[in-house]
Specification:
By secondary structure, this protein is mainly alpha-helical. The protein is built from 23 helices and no strands.
């Protein structure tokens, strides 16, 4: 028998099918016939080898799947064809089909470790972490030394936000194999979730030492240094990630954020545009481009990008910041109704919105000639300024408002709440 794919079988010959049936019947009537069972095993092994040898000629694997299904019918007491079927569907990302074949194989042999692993992995990829955890724990009863199982349990616990359990299992994976990169990477992701940036960087750096050309590890380091506000270091790793994979959209997205933090707005826009070439609906790239255009005084372009970003899937924090920025940018282009709409929309997203948001709302009302409503809003800002954390944020907001009022030539009534704020009242709380 050869492994040459060009000589692959197109179907299982009927005479061979008959022989298999006769041998199976003989083995059933004569349990002591070990030679017959060995012959059946050899035939099965050879057919599986021949079928799998042709996979390279057939990207969709339709014939391979049909032959393995036929083999599963011919050998109903063997889990081997079902194991290979589950593996093919896992490789192709068809996890429901992979789960079906893994469970069919376990019905034949409940103690088959590889099938137990495939079943658990399929459940995890289908977004069922609780079931996946139980599946991997069952696998560990059969094979307690595989670091992948501990790693995958840890990752499932991380997605359930059960961080202590996640940490324990990821460290168990490392105990099994000190060079097991996925566990170090997942520990970095775990600490990223908790915004423990120092430990995130620590574990990502260990992973980098073992595998410096791993783009995901470079991205994790970029994210960690962003969290630590070490933006030049973040950029170094993000650039490394794009050198490893020039189509790595997530690296360009984070790179555009790093350039924003460094005040390098043209470069931020360039990185965002690279991300959008690869992923046109990237909300992060659209948002960063919008923010950078606004910082350059190109407010109409900023609004266009931020409106597009708002239509994409983003997290709650992203939506909040986009609405906040849109409210401010609409003020710049004299569209006061929209400025008021987005300031209020952002305020509804937080029980205690940032103190700059009511200021934006008050400005939008003032520019619409609604002085009474604006003064009521500014009065509330004065009250909130008594909180030290709010006061620090208020100082920056007041600087921006002074610049806005100066550019727009707005006359502020003496003695009004806004006038008092602009004059530095109230004083800084003790």
């Amino acid at each position: 028998m050869t492994n040459n794919p060009a000589e692959r079988i197109q179907s299982i010959d009927p005479p061979l099918t008959n022989i298999i049936g006769e041998l199976r019947e003989y083995a059933r009537r004569h349990p002591e016939a070990r030679a017959v069972r060995a012959a059946l095993g050899g035939i099965l092994e050879g057919l599986v080898e021949k079928i799998l040898a042709g996979r390279v000629l057939e990207p969709e694997h339709e014939l391979t799947i049909a032959l393995l299904e036929e083999l599963a019918t011919l050998f109903p007491d063997s889990p081997t064809p079902l194991l290979h079927l589950s593996k093919i569907f896992i490789d192709g990302g068809s996890y429901e089909a992979a789960l079906k074949y893994a469970e069919a194989g376990l019905a034949v042999n409940p103690d088959h470790a590889d099938l137990a692993f495939n079943r658990a992995l399929s459940l995890q990829e289908m977004g069922k972490p609780d079931a996946a955890i139980e599946g991997f724990k069952r696998y560990l009863e059969l094979n307690p030394d595989n670091p992948w199982a501990y790693n995958n349990i840890g990752d499932a616990y991380r997605h359930l936000k059960l961080y202590d359990q996640a940490e324990n299992y990821l460290k168990l994976a490392i105990e099994r194999d000190r060079r097991f990169i996925p566990a170090y990477y997942n520990l970095a992701m775990l600490y990223m979730d908790q915004q423990d940036w120092e430990r995130c960087a620590y574990y990502a750096q260990i992973a980098e030492r073992v595998d410096p050309l791993n783009k995901e590890v470079q991205l994790a380091l970029g994210d960690a240094f962003m969290g630590l506000r070490e933006h030049p270091s973040a950029l170094q790793h993000l650039v490394n990630a794009t050198l490893i994979d020039r189509d790595f959209v997530e690296a360009y997205e984070t790179m555009s954020s790093a350039y924003v933090e460094l005040g390098m707005y043209e470069l931020s826009i360039a990185a965002a545009q690279e991300a959008m070439k690869l992923k046109p609906d990237s909300w992060m790239a659209l948002a960063n481009a919008g923010y950078s255009y606004a910082k350059q005084g190109r407010f109409a372009e900023a609004v266009k990008y931020q409106q597009e970003a708002l239509q994409r899937d983003s997290d709650d924090e992203g939506q909040y910041k986009l609405c906040w920025d849109l409210g401010w940018n609409y003020l710049q282009i004299d569209r006061y109704s929209e400025a008021l709409e987005y300031a209020e929309k952002a305020m509804r997203m937080r029980e205690f919105p940032d103190i700059a948001l009511p200021l934006n709302k008050g400005l939008a009302l003032l520019m619409q000639g609604k002085s009474r409503e604006a003064n009521a809003v500014f009065d509330e800002v004065v009250k909130r300024a008594a909180i030290p954390e709010n006061y620090r944020a208020l100082l920056q907001a007041i600087r921006d408002i002074k610049d806005y009022i100066s550019r727009k030539g707005v006359q502020v009534e003496k003695g009004s709440p806004l006038f008092k704020l602009l004059e530095g009242q109230p004083q800084a709380p003790s």
